[in-house]
Amino acid sequence: MNTKVKRGWTRWLIVLAVFAMVAAACSSSDDSGSTETTAAAAATETTAASSGGDAGDVATQDLIPVKLQLQWFTQAQFAGYFAALDQGYYALAGLDVEILEGGVDIVPATVLDSGAADFAISWVPRGLVPREEGLNITNIAQVFQRSATLQVSFADSGITKAEDLAGKTVGNWGFGNEFELLAGMRSVGLDPDADVTLVQQQFDMLALISGDIDAAQAMTYNEYAQVLETVNPDTGELFQPEDLAVIDWNDVGTAMLQDAIWADADKLDSDEEYKSIAVKFVEASLRGWAFCRDEFDACVDIVLAAGPTLGESHQAWQLNEINNLIWPSPQGVGSMDSDLWNQTVEVAVSEGILAEEPTDGAYRTDIVILAQANLAVRGIDFQGMDWTPKTIELLEGGE
Amino acid sequence: MIRKAIRAAGPALVIGVGGIALWEISFAIIQPDGFVLPAPSEILAAFTENIDEIWVATKNTGYIAITGLIAGVILGVLWALLVSRYRTANETLTPLAIALNAIPIIALAPIFNAWFGLLSPVSNQSIVIILVFFPVFINTTKGLTAVKPAELELMRSYAAPPREVARKVRIPNAMPYFFTALKIASSLAVIGAIVAEYFGGRQDALGPLIVQNAGLTRYADAWAAVLAGSLLGIVLYLLSGIFERASMPWEHAAETAGS
Predict the structure, then answer these.
(1) Is it the case that residue A33 has pLDDT exceeding 80?
(2) CB-based contact B203 A199, cutoff 8 Å
(3) Chain A residue closest to B205 (CA)?
(4) Closest CA relative to residue A223, chosen from A318, A287, A115
(5) What domains, with CATH codes, occur in chain A?
(6) Which one of A283, A360, B107, B236 is at 20 to 30 Å from B21 when CA atoms are compared?
(7) B202: which residues sit within 8 A by CB, 6+ positions away?
(8) Measured between alpha carbons, how far is residue B68 from residues A199, B61, B108, B238 in Å?
């Protein structure tokens, strides 16, 4: 009788021990920058952003650790930050920056507010909505001056302006990326719920190419190029720009501001050190963007070294288009264009994205002004008035 | 009769209402930065505020869940009947069922979208069917085959053809197993429908509603949509229970006799 009880216990102990080992093995420290593989066809491989090449011979123990949360996967959209890391601008400023890759389910505002990152890159509406929900974050540098959102369709569909979307299947990504589209449709009298069929689009152009949707959401610097990197089954050649028709929300007047550097507003007011770190971080980042403007090929190589999903020709196209969103910047890169800010807020409020106009402190200019002053002292050109776009040749699959 | 109903439902109500009250009160006291988990009152407020949107989304998701559930159940039962009757079917279909069940949805959903079209309900219904059919198949097969040998011998002694054996012995034996599986399947159907929606398709459905609101840190709205999904699952579960009660009146009599 005694031995039977003992055996029963041993069996359960072994089961528990195995369970504990499996549980321990399975629970990995949840890095806020870790991403999950998504179903997005083009970008299923996620790699942790490598910290770039030589940061110079600066002793790393003196550097202050800083984390930057990107809004999306590693690509030329964030070239300036990778360049700043690679060229040692952050190290020179006394910062040891770790770049956290973004993804589909990663919300930069949440990561920033929780303290898992010190700064975050986020589109303005995607920063304003959480701010209204109670996350006290603020825009400290408006890096992209223009919106890059397009609604793309095939030329033979005849969708050249917003009115043409009536009665069509219109793809969009949701997640706060669709506001310009919705506002654009309403501005020409269309009701997004009744006059079009809105479709949840994956972060690729397969639905457009396969004919599932009539018009797809695309960024000038990414998905648009993905179409041009695909072979047209009818011709056997890559799709050409002439095959596509685009609606640019900048022209329609419902464009909203996009990539900006966001910081924790409470900390900025209470922590002097954080504020001075913010100035240094912005300064080094803007310097990185200036580098990517002046040293195009080197910058593309830096991005490629950081491990993006798509290849060289795609990243080159992307960097060129990103430069087009930043330069020339008469007020200086990172400055807030108050007309565009007002337009962004107006669209947000009229669309019901925001319940009311953002309270004061949604963006601040003091930090970027200090950063630009420092750049001026160093003789860095932060306006890029002489910049001109290049012509990039795309290869199949973005190689 | 009323007292019996109260005694039956009483403990559950106390725990349910008590739990929610505890949640609400502790949040009022602690006031956490808990925008990830809002207080029940906030969720309810968001639910009533967005009721139109949520109702449309629930209808769309519910349609997929219910049609997929019915199709998956029929498929599972037919599969089980075949497998219990013919040995070759057992050897071929059972491994196939296991293999199909093992394929992760994340892999299947985009494939179905490509095959059937992003906007076609068939792509989402197929996900639900795949999720639902396996528990139904396995449980029903068990029920059809785990028959007391004595009963089979009795039917043999009557020279009963397989059809009669099925009708008189196997199927009644399988019914409790089937309804257990149906209850499991009804929740799986809702989960399957919502998850399938993550991979593209119409945006006026519960899946996109939850995910989009969470992505914009509108957690009260996201939880309101989650609540709608739970209610949908509960309704399907209750319907399964009613169906069970109607089909097996003798079971219920036996259960209540014990208490």
Answers:
(1) no
(2) yes
(3) A200
(4) A318
(5) 60-146+257-398 (3.40.190.10), 149-252 (3.40.190.10)
(6) B236
(7) A197, A198, A199, A200, B60, B119, B208
(8) 21, 11, 15, 17
